[in-house]
Predict the 3D structure of the following.
Amino acid sequence: MSHAIVETEEHHDLRAAVAALGGRYGREYFTSVVRDGQHTDELWAEAGKLGYLGVNLPEEYGGGGGGITELAIVLEELGAVGCPLLMMVVSPAICGTVIARFGTDAQKRAWLPGLAAGTTKMAFGITEPDAGSNSHRLTTTARRDGDDWILTGRKVFVSGVDIADATLVVGRTEDARTGRLKPCLFIVGRDAPGFSRQRIAMELAAPEKQFELVLDEVRLPADALVGDEDAGLLQLFAGLNPERVMTAAFAIGMGRYAVTRAVDYARTRAVWDRPIGAHQAIAHPLAQAHIELELARLMTQKAASLYDAGDDVGAGEAANMAKYAAGEAAVHAVDQAVHTLGGNGLTSEYGLASLITAARVARVAPVSREMILNYVSHQTLGLPKSY
């Protein structure tokens, strides 16, 4: 099986088209939306209408019939012009993928056309107050009651619940044979009785808000369960690998935006007789940041390619590495961009300072860099576990 290192002409054209769309909105649109406490509804709707939000979903349900490769390109290019859409990571990439791969025909018909068009949004609830990276410690439980399911538990750091029509919640059911708990995925409508949300105050300049969810004996019909009750982790990781690839794309786009702004500034800002970009102390770190972003993008393309080819195990390793590399590269790029502008780098006018916090997220979410190092040391290098 070969993996294209050089992008196809179709991918190149997709990048250009998405960059043009995002460029019509730009960073000022994005920051004004954040400042006013609004959402990027206009950009989201237009991206959906043009088919960009559903490029990874099956054509028979209104999607583009592509893969995570194409969806990652869309998110990266929107980020590179200063308009990263976080809900793309959650709605089409995680939820859309899980439903497309494991949902019943009825679930696919009910959800995929809207997710593909962007007219429907879905959130994803996995993290809990006492179970972050350790999904084996999830305490949100689902029990049968006749044909129904009863879901009880709490979730934290769930993005965009206020604008989502439903949330894909990771709960655990008891295995009738062993008595052990196994993960299962449930679609919970936003108005389900017993389903409540509370906003978490964040030091983060993003249009998407973060929420804590409480599921208090939420009664769900049998068809709220996505996929096979016994598939468990397989289905969960089918959604988590795209999440890592998309988080990498999110970070790379952000890093590219920061470097572009810094390079523009360094070309024109003259302190002595020449532009500051002529000095190697300014030029070399920006060149290094660019190289790191390009390397991270290459790993992201590899991970997306493996995933789209159906290699879940290979994609898992590559997606973790891509997320790690992109998070590091984005943090370095943003830091260097702010440093290049000096005091201007911290002004609202140049819009780079807010990226310091935003880029830092990619080192923590959806899984910390230490957990990725654990994964690589155990799975790739075969070293013993410490836990």
About this structure: The chain has a mean pLDDT of 94.
